[in-house]
Structure formats: C-alpha cells, structure tokens
Amino acid sequence: MQYPDFDFYIHIDQKIDIGPFLFLKDIASVFFIQKRIECNWGGYSTLQAMVNSLQEAHESSRVYKFYNLLSAQDYPLRSNKWIHDFLLENAEKSFIYYEEDHTSKWWDSAVQRFDKYHLTDFNFPYKFFVERIINKVLPKRKFPLPVKLYGGSKASWWMINDECAEYLLNAFKKEKGLSNFLRFCWGTDEFVIPTILMNSPLSAKIVNGNLRYIFFPKGDASPKILQAADLDAVVKSDMLFARKFDAAIDSVILDEIDEFIDRA
C-alpha cells in the first residue's frame, strides 16, 4: 500500500508487545500511535483507540484530505493509484455505513448496547454478577444527545474526509458527558461515529457505504473469514477493500487478489 501521498498510523493494542513491530519505523510513511489503549472486544476502549488514532493523525504536521480506518485483517482490492484517484474525484464526500434507528432490524437488539450498563472495560471479580445487579436495580439509560441514532454491523470501518474528521474530533471535545456515558456501553464503535456525523451539517456529503466488501453469513455475529472460494464475489464487488482475512486459514486468496490488481 506504500504510495507517495499515503501515510500509515498504526495503533498497537496496549496488551501487545510493540517490539516485534518497531522495524516498520524504518519506513518513512509509517508512524506509531503514541497514546495506546488496551482494547477489549465490545468495549468503549476500541472506540477510544480509533479516536486517539484519528486525533494524532489529524494533529500531525502533515495535511491529509482523507482518513481511512483499517484493521490488520483488511486488504486492498484496487491499486494504490486507483484508490488515490478515486479519493481525488470524491474529495467532498465521506464514506460510512449506517442503518437508521427507527427502520433497522439491527437496532432492535442494538438498543441494549446503551440502555443497559456494560462493564466490558473493567476487570474485577464477579463483574458480570455486579453488571446484572446494576441493570436490575437502575433504570434504563438514555443516550445523552437528542439525536437520531445511526449504526450497523459494518459501521466500524469508514473513510472520512478532513472536514468530517475535524467535526468528529471537536464533537468529542465539546460533548464532555458523552465519553463518560459511552464507557458503560457495548459495541460503541458500531454506532457512535455514524450517529455524530449523520446528525451534523455535513450529513448531505456522507455516502452510505464504507467501500468494504464484508460478508456476514446469516445468523452470524462476525463476518466470514474470506477464502479462495470467495474470490469471485470479492473482486466483483467494486469495493476498495475487503475484510476479514486470515493468512493462517487461507493465504491463497491474498495472492489471487494481488494478481487481480495487477491485471486491472
């Protein structure tokens, strides 16, 4: 993915030894996020790591037109130049997947992500017992902002322009009570960012789609690990990226995607 106009900011989970990754610092376009977070699946810590990473990139001495969130299990489906030119042609847009809270089946179950207390980022004996007691005794929680909610199972991954990035970071600074509320929510990375941006003056410039091919088998909570048999669907998707991949399960599909990019 190295390209003259692309830089990479890498967040290494605080639980992980950063040592084996430090060789990447020798690449001029690679930077490590300094404010590392210990991330817990479903915890507010995951969203916090995303926001910290966005903030460090945005406040760097470099100027960026787009910020693209990727995980270690994402892979490009188009060449660097293709992606670069696409972004230049769509400089006024941002790309985020979302479903509206009043029309989506996803929200039928997702509402409990914030109307109940979750102790996901806490670690102490009997925490799940304490969590159940709290939710029995205390009333349901209400989202602290008077807004329509947006989110979805594919909403964690996005590509936003600088205008959206600045608005998002300012929103977290301005709404002091929001972070405190979110600390006791679950899966905030799937609804908080689209909710903030879709209730902003920038919403008309947001495209509902994150430019990723992600396949959720029916009834599964996690996306499928893509393998060679999925290649045709992946390359015909017209997306810029796909996820999830695991080279230990199937590395052949990554080689075949490289060949597809070279031919395109």
Concise description?
With 264 residues, the protein is α/β, with parallel strands linked by helices. It contains 10 helices and 11 strands. β10, α9 (231-235) and β11 (241-243) form a beta-alpha-beta unit.
SSE layout and pairing:
Blueprint lengths: L7 E3 L19 E3 L11 H15 L7 E3 L5 E3 L3 H10 L4 E3 L2 E2 L4 H6 L1 H4 L11 H11 L12 E2 L6 E4 H13 L1 H7 L9 H7 L7 E3 L3 E2 L17 H5 L5 E3 L8 H12 L1
Parallel strand pairs: 1-2, 5-9, 10-11
Antiparallel strand pairs: 3-8, 4-11, 5-8, 6-7
Your description of this structure?
The chain has 264 residues and is α/β, with parallel strands linked by helices. The chain has one domain. The chain has ten helices and eleven strands. The protein has a four-stranded mixed beta sheet with strand order 3-8-5-9. Strands 4-11-10 form a three-stranded mixed beta sheet, with no helix packed on it. It has a two-stranded parallel ribbon with strand order 1-2. Helix 9 (231-235) links the parallel strand 10 and strand 11. It is globular and about 60 Å long. The mean pLDDT is 95. Keywords: Disulfide bond, Endoplasmic reticulum, Glycoprotein, Glycosyltransferase, Golgi apparatus, Membrane, Metal-binding, Signal-anchor, Transferase, Transmembrane, Transmembrane helix.
